[in-house]
Amino acid sequence: MLRRLRRDEYTVGWICALPVELAAAKVMLDEEYDHLERDENDENLYSLGSIGGHNVVIVCLPAGRIGNNPAAAVATQMRATFKGIQFGLMVGIGGGVPNPEVDIRLGDVVVSQPDRISGGVVQYDLGKTTPSGFDRMGSLNSPPQILLGAVAKVQASKLQGRSRLSEYFSQFSRMPKFQRDNAGPDVLFEAAYDHEGGQTCGLCKREREVDRQRRESEEVVVHYGTIASGNQVMRDGRTRDRVSRELGGVLCFEMEAAGLMNSFPCLVIRGICDYADSHKNKTWQAFAAATAAACAKGVLSVIPTAEIDKSHTADKIIKEKDVLDSILNRLSYAENAPFNSYARQHEPTCLPDTRVDVLREIHKWADGQDKRCIFWLNGLAGTGKSTIARTVARTYSDHGRLGASFFFLRGGGDISHAGKFFTSIAVQLARNVPALSRHICEAITERSDIASQSLRDQWQQLVLRPLSKLDGSSCQSLYVLVVDALDECDDENNIRIIPQLLAEARSLESVRLRVFLTSRPEIPIRYGFCQIPDTEHQDFVLHKILPSIVDHDISIFLAHNLRLIGQERSLDASWPGEEVIRYLVQLASGLFIWAATTCRFIREGKRFVAKRLDTILNSSGIAATAPEKHLNEIYITVLRHSVSEEYTDEEKEELYYMLRQILGSIAVLFSPLSIYSLSTLLRVTKEDVDQTLEDLQSVLDVPKDQTQPLRLHHPSFRDFLLNKDRCEGPHFWVDEKQAHQTLADSCIQLMSTSLKQDICSLNTPGVLVTNVASSRVEQCLPLEVQYACMYWVQHLQKSSAVLHDDDQVHQFLQNYLLYWLEALSLIGKISEGVHAITSLESYVLANKSPNLHAFVYDAKRFVLYNRSVVEQAPLQTYCSALIFAPEDSVVRKQFKNDIPTWICKKPTVQAKWNATLQTLEGHSDWVRSVAFSPDGKLVASASDDKTVRLWDAVTGAALQMLELSIMIRTLSFSTSGQYLITDRGVLDVSSLQLLLDPLEELRTLFVSNNWVAEEGANILWLPPDYRATCVAVWGGMVVLGHSSGRISFLEFEQGSKTI
């Protein structure tokens, strides 16, 4: 009678896809167990038994159901039924990949084994098709450590001559179907030779066979390496070899493993039954299934049963991964930052045989022993920096050595600033380097507010420290970080500090991080690199490459793209001819953006491509030698062709107006919008926007999916549109101030018609914003409304409009201020609201609009006082914020009818706002010293909690924090605002890094231990009556505040202090 075990006593799950594989698996059982009662929620049918002392559950996919998805479904049900399963085996047949370096034969076995590129299994068909090829996405987990340890023991036994594979295979000796003799000949045909037809290869030509040396022994060989998994059968030799090359060399193709690796920790074992080409047949399947099963038994047999008890169940492993993923999701992430994001899928990489010298230089730096950890590629607009950056990112991504990439874009929303720079890099690193994931998640858990901390803190906590914890054995020894167009970041201070922070990657030891960075050679970036020793960064000036080399590359680019256009339109193979290509190269004047725009313009001509080429040739003159002039000409040509000569003058003027309105808006937007959002914001029909942009796709990226944002192909087109001289007339020139005025008016109108109290129907006034689903916020506050809420003040300021009492701005604030603040809270942008109101206060002239100025001033006090509660609970805008506002508050009076009626007795409050603007919370102990920066934008504070903090003086937001082992008692800003002078040394404000080198040019005047000191030397002792409770330093002036209320002023001359 068969033994019956409980479900929780089974520890190993064995999955197979075909009946022949199931039969082979059951032969390997040392003992077969009785069936259990079927779970009504489980559709699987199981075979139960033991192998090597381990209780094993064997399950086969339903007949006719093969592939990743069925495998995942079967594994999920098995895990739910048998909760004690620790790990699994995916055992069966696969298609081998012939390789001169790895002699794979039919009947051999391939076992998935991780390397520094993959976890042992790669899903080769998951991704998207782009102009530069198929972009694979996602990564799969490695097998559990206990199975990898078993694989190592099996390999060692083989080397010692103690392999038991033949012993286990001998269990098939009485089963003829599984014997090698019945499998037939082992024939490999050339990859490019297709099957001639029939069930066998009887009609295939023997002269197309690959000549291989006969093996001395018929012993089955086991190979270890990467297995490629997909949802379709690989049955083409050419495709097999191409995919294998792209993946860095795989040993086998199969169809189920990719569905398991991230949801069911397992080892994949495949017996080779064919060569994944068109000559497939089933004659080797039984033998291959048997060798794979024997190998699987060999792996299980070397794992002591006691080790099983120490390992986690499959469920626990999956849950741990889910926990890590959920922690990682807490970090703010810029979806469009990576080089291969959906929004960038049509952006090109370098063509073969172009940019050869610069790419060689980059790879030499990245792959060699160069100690310089940053490569700065700088060049003028349109010289091809971003294309090179995408090429570098693609190359290292394909080789599993791309750590992360971030492509900045002016006006690109999340990628136009550094707010999500390091958090996005950390998320990509965790995904691209699995061994890093746990360390990064630990950093997030330790500092839950890390995403709101300074760039330095984010860089150190989320990137440097996790990387420093890697031992180098579980990952690559080198990773490349690609940062493109840093000059398009909208904050010059961040532009300066980012290169300095990235240079700290030099401190890493076990793993090297190379940073490839591109930008225009603008002053803030040059300043940043000036702070880094030349020995730590390599510079390459793109626009100084020999013109002949650049012209050669542009020639290849033009010839390639025009040949494709000619093929699309069935033109003569010789079109357009070498002479035309040479002339176009001259017109490009070294600018790749000119060549790219020209090709897009010609392609859009469709049946008139030849005519459009003639237009380019006839409208451009070599006499215009400046590259910018040639760029002007191609842009003007594109715009003129969007206005048909058949239109009447009146129709042309209408179209010119529409072009200026729509293109102007796209050019000056602070964050890109879709066609739908832009049309809603501008109050024009979607059809008008569609038709206006229809012929402008050579300069604009107009997605077919109209929910995706519109983008300029290149920032140089924006520069062109906003420059009256370059546009050569009024038809296309966009008046930047007028464009901002149009958008400011549109934003105010949209908010006035969209915003209302409790817009998300939260009902309960205490609901926290963290408990409101983002989908609900997006539904109630569409993207165009969010845009209006965030940027209307910025557009207003850029327009230079003069404001007056009772104008639309005044009326908007009087009617919708609280609704606007509620909306900002819901989208997590209260800080932006504080900045907006403060900016508006400085913009409104009190003498010309006293009532508006008074309202804005009061609104600023209202927001600063209530920022903390409104940021957390949006509906408290109408409760706590109004109830506790002073009686004479303009805002309170204006919105008194919005105070909830359920508050029957209101508290007694002060008549006016007091002197306290806001309270900064963060220090945990006594605050010893506070100082304002010279421009009044920053506040620095030092506390007995051994921290120095920097605050935004306008919004009160915490910007940076430095933890020290000592207390700092006094601090002050240098006159330049670049340094903090403390009694313990000098701090760099941009990084809060303690500087060790003396700075002779600084006036390091401060008060410490009852002394006024300068540059470390005591110069004036303070008697008890003059000892201060607080100190401020401005240049040579020291101000002492005393507990009695008295204030003392001391001023010192520059120069030597001697007696």
How would you explain this protein's 3D organization?
This is NACHT domain-containing protein. Residues 12-297 form the Nucleoside phosphorylase domain. WD repeats lie at residues 920-961. It is a single chain. With 1059 residues, the protein is an alpha/beta fold. The protein has six domains: 7-316, Rossmann fold (3-Layer(aba) Sandwich); 329-545, P-loop containing nucleotide triphosphate hydrolases (Rossmann fold); 548-641, no CATH class; 649-732, Arc Repressor Mutant, subunit A; 740-898, no CATH class; 927-1051, YVTN repeat-like/Quinoprotein amine dehydrogenase (Methylamine Dehydrogenase, Chain H), CATH 2.130.10. Helix content is 38%, strand content 16%. It contains 33 helices and 34 strands. The strands form eight sheets. Strands 1, 2, 3, 4, 5, 6, 7, 10, 11, 12 and 13 form an eleven-stranded mixed β-sheet that branches. Helix 14 packs parallel to helix 15 and helix 18 crosses helix 19. The radius of gyration is 35 Å and the shape is globular. The N and C termini lie far apart (108 Å). Mean pLDDT is 86; it is low at 129-133 and 996-1002.
